[in-house]
Design goal:
Lysozyme; single chain; 6 helices; disordered N terminus; mainly alpha
Length: 164
């Protein structure tokens, strides 16, 4: 149990394995990732994977609660948007230029009072305000709110549904 906790706190290294092979005297081919004799020869060399980091999803809970209280947006909705949009990476930048935890587009910074999109507090508060506006605009129809958050309200308004 202690090992699990330590690995969770420090992050875990994904295991990788080279594959070894040998053909015996009967022509049977044997594969292993743990060679037991010198008969085995390296068959496939697997490159080590990037280190996986366990990210605490509770790190921003206090800010999310403040945003919930201020804007009336459900805690779980804000947290889910952060997970989907940035996987809790405050420095995330999308290919289209959305920035921060809630992936706010630069065109929206001013109207959402976001001066530094990489500041978790500003980003979460701005993202929650935007969700509040979309919830009001789409009468709490969550599928339209989330579609508008992702694709923009113009696309949802154009199709009157989730855009293709």
């Amino acid at each position: 149990m202690v090992l699990l906790i330590v690995l969770t706190i420090l992050g875990v290294e994904r295991a990788f394995a080279d594959i070894y092979m040998y053909k015996d005297s009967l022509g049977v081919v044997h594969f292993t990732n743990v060679p037991t004799s010198s008969k085995y020869k390296l068959y496939i060399k697997e490159k080590p994977k990037k280190r996986l980091h366990i990210i605490s999803t509770k790190k921003y809970d206090d800010v999310i609660r403040k945003a919930q209280k201020k804007y009336g947006v459900e805690f779980s909705l804000i947290k889910a948007v952060i997970k989907v949009e940035s996987d809790f990476n405050p420095e995330a930048v999308s290919k289209k230029g959305a920035k921060g935890l809630m992936q706010i587009m630069p065109d929206n910074f001013k109207s959402l009072a976001v001066k530094d999109p990489f500041n978790p507090f500003q980003n979460i508060m701005g993202g929650a305000l935007y969700l509040q506006q979309l919830l009001k605009r789409y009468e709490n129809k969550l599928h339209l709110v989330l579609a508008a958050y992702n694709a923009g309200p113009e696309a949802v308004d154009k199709y009157k549904k989730i855009p293709p």
